[in-house]
Amino acid sequence: METGLGGKTVVITGAANGIGRATALAFAKEGAHLALLDHDAEKLAETSALIRGCGVNAYDVQADLSTGQGVQAGLDVLLAKLPDGVDVLVNNVGHGDPKPFEEITDEQWERTFAINLMSMVRVTRHLLPVLRQKEKSAIVSNASDLGRQPETAPADYAAMKSAMLALTKSLARAEAPKIRVNAVAPGPIWSTFWSRPGGFAEGLSSIYNMPPRQAVDHEMKLRKLPLERLGEPEEVANVIVFLASDLASYVTSSVWGVDGGSIRSIV
After folding, report:
1. Does position 143 have pLDDT exceeding 90, yes or no?
2. Residue 124 contacts residue 139 (beta carbons within 8 Å)
3. Burial code of 49-88, b = ≥16 C-beta within 10 A, e = fewer?
4. Is domain 9-192+233-258 annotated with CATH 3.40.50.720?
5. CB 240 within 8 A of CB 180
6. 30 near 6, Cβ under 8 Å?
7. β-strand partners of 184
8. pLDDT at residue 217 in the model
9. How far, CA to CA in Å, does 17 sit from each of 38, 39, 107, 157, 196?
10. Which residue in 35, 115, 126, 262 is a FRET match for 86, CA 20 to 30 A apart?
11. Domain-by-domain residue ranges, the chain?
């Protein structure tokens, strides 16, 4: 099937590794050009090199997307490199520390708010005038199954992901019919988001007093995950590319679960 993504320009935030990198590579394989933002310059350069190996253009800019100034500076530099504008935006930046509710400080709430929600708000607000110039543009934001079905931890992360889903619905109505706006809600995906120092796996290890991977497996059992495994970044990337493509031309205001069956609700 033809995705219609060949020659289009896709902006991805948080593109240095994990789901962001997998998504960039998936778009590149469809012939799209990539414009990438992340705070990790070294890993971002690695991603760009992999993309260019697919025979398409890759532009990368190091940026701190947790602040308004960082978003503005990063996007100003990036857009100067894109004479043909932007066709697709993927909001992929995310951060969370799985701590019990009473241990989450005000500062941690504010950091989770800035990285997960306000990065989406600021990047989208900045790029909407550019996306409106195209006939068929799309926004896909990476939320979480915790935004649809919260667990005991992390409460701050789940709250911000729920807000992302509400914003997705609002933007879809505001920007229709010209821009389609959707979200993916991944379940547990084995990437640096889980495995990094201080990541979910380490946090769960502290909560359950188990080695990190064992703690993750324990968490999956508690969630009664039907597919009984963590997902892979590529499995989320495939759905993001679909939602951004012509194959999803009648899909907007939707939330697509890529969660191994974690969500039990029918709505």
Report:
1. yes
2. yes
3. eebeebebebbbbbbbbbeeebbeebbeebbeeeeebbbb
4. yes
5. no
6. yes
7. 142, 256
8. 78
9. 9, 11, 26, 20, 11
10. 115
11. 9-192+233-258
